[in-house]
Amino acid sequence: MARQRFMELLAQGVPLRLAAIEVGVSRSAAQIWKNGTTVRRKDGTVKVVLPLEPLAVRPISPRFLSEEERVRIADMASRGDGPTVIGQALGRAASTISRELRRNLHTTGQYRPFHAQVLAAQRRRRPKQPKVAGNPVLRAFVVDRLAEKWSPQQISRALRAAHPDEPAMRLATESIYLALYRPSNGLVSKPSPLRTGRDHRRAHNRQIRAGRRFAQPMLSVHDRGFEPTDRSVAGHWEGDLIVGPNHRSGIGTLVERQTRYTKLLHLPTQDSITVHAALVRTLGQLPAGLRRTLTWDQGTEMARHLEVAADTGIRVYFCDAASPWQRGTNENTNGLLRQYFPKSTDLSVHTPADLARVELELNRRPRMILGDRTPADLFNALLTSQNHPPLR
Length: 392
What we know:
Elements: H1 2-11, H2 16-23, H3 27-35, E1 37-40, E2 46-49, H4 67-78, H5 83-90, H6 94-103, H7 113-123, H8 131-134, H9 136-147, H10 152-162, H11 173-181, E3 219-220, E4 236-243, E5 250-256, E6 262-267, H12 272-283, E7 293-296, H13 305-312, E8 315-318, H14 328-337, H15 352-363, H16 375-385
Parallel strand pairs: 3-8, 4-7, 7-8
Antiparallel strand pairs: 1-2, 4-5, 5-6
Helix pairs in contact: 1-2, 2-3, 4-7, 5-6, 10-11, 12-13
Keywords: DNA recombination, DNA-binding, Transposition
Family: Belongs to the transposase IS30 family.
Protein name: IS30 family transposase
């Protein structure tokens, strides 16, 4: 493999000395690999060591200057032509020619095309082992957090906070995604630990639901009294259902807008009677100061919204039709919950204990939007300030 790599480097224009260092052999050994040699044994016989088969030069993108173009640049520059004239002749931008003449000069101050080609090849990106694959401690940290269903962004920020002075223990969010999208990295096995369940990138193609599902008299989200971006006051909630196949099973979701604290509702059925009872039971556990408003989708499961308001003291508002972004906090949370409750699966199999476990795990995750604090810590601080015991 070292010989193969050595010849690949030579084909890319890397000097023999640097290629030898890269693969870990002496310069004399590299000379033999490239040119071959003749060895005379003590018994008088001669052994011929053939040179390694040269590799074809790896094709590069046409956006990079070729060796032929560099020869023309040298010829025209020697005649006194400037970057604009040379660029027009080659079909290149004048800035490209100017940068080439500036970056790839020989130590003598002259522009030599073959030397410039070698310099450009040396700067070209080389394949290298991903950091997460070469650092067992770093890899273990990432794998453990993925097992706890942390997102790549949360993992990246946690690494930065835990190892502020150790660059070797840093990973960009994109690096974690790339490691997950490349099976050769051996980071995790299938199924993908990402919340989407995907092992590759996919273009978004979301269709907006049309029409109204709830025609009862209701309060509009536009009458709520505060802007969607205003989270200065706690106690404002957003809610919805995540449903299984053919809407035959479902789980209710509630999210407090300021802290992103999540509550899950166990729903044997999705009718308005069951949803009303679950909301009254869950919201009734909270102090009045944390039961201000509830914003919901226009689903028929909220047909008893007036009873919910009367029984809990909370004001219920409804989004416009086909406007889920008007309760964006809840929509985002529902996306996180799909990691636990995948689409097209029967949600009725999950017990109240199952929902409590997921709720606890989700609320204990640090959030970048919260300054890497957890929803549980912030919400329990609110409860303490109102002389209310912490939840779970």
